[in-house]
Amino acid sequence: MELVKTIIKMDEIVKDKQSHQQTIGYVATMGYLHEGHLNLVKQARNDCDIVVMSIFVNPLQFGPNEDFESYPRDEERDKQLAEDAGVDYLFMPTVSEMYPTESFMKIRVEKGTDVLCGASRPGHFDGVATVVMKLFQIIEPTKAYFGLKDAQQVAIIKNMVKTFNLKLDIVACPTVREEDGLAKSSRNVYLSEKERALAPQLAMSLNEAKMLMEKGMHSRADIISFLQQKMQQISLGKTDYVDVLSFPALEAKELLKGDVIVALAYQFEKARLIDNILVTIKEEL
Gene Ontology cellular component (predicted)? Predict the structure, then answer.
């Protein structure tokens, strides 16, 4: 595995691979790698000739009171995990490399940001879209791999690719979970012992909601009410949001049908956890 720190060097590598008609699979991360990230690498390894991973904690997507400085980082551990997983090139630029001067512009996401995580994090997905667009331009992947744990992010990136006619495929991979169902996340390390014991109730509640929908409960309001009651039972934190929306359009439809996302966010003392599940509701004949 080769470690790459500069955009110029990454560009040289990409041009060389393209000249040999090699496909590039790309996994974008903010580091502190876990099995979810490595699963994306595995999929990219199966599909493409070359695998590039980036590790970059992007300041544009953190709000004034969010955890940019305290976001977990472990560069040496990440390097070893990436190499063991089969990454060919690990792109680890500094903030000054990615943003050498004050930006003249950034992407503004017009739809799909006023719900779920975007509702309480204004500007967050503008920052995500801007850095992902920059990384796509630098790495020029054939396919880019993202986990469905951040399903709103997947939807917004897919819409960005479609809007700007970017010549790559977005591959959405299932959420990787612990044995007890908790979605793997870099922020899980912030959970206390008691919080960690309660955290699997997030996934359990989503699965219960899915079962209700499959049994015929197709009212958005009823599913939201059910999840709110389940979240109140956790007791060691507070609910940020629960919602049920069409996917990937992320629109609120009171009568649920087709592909929908059931999503929630829960704030423990030091960790805000998100989770979701996708459900397909067949139209009744």
Answer: cytosol
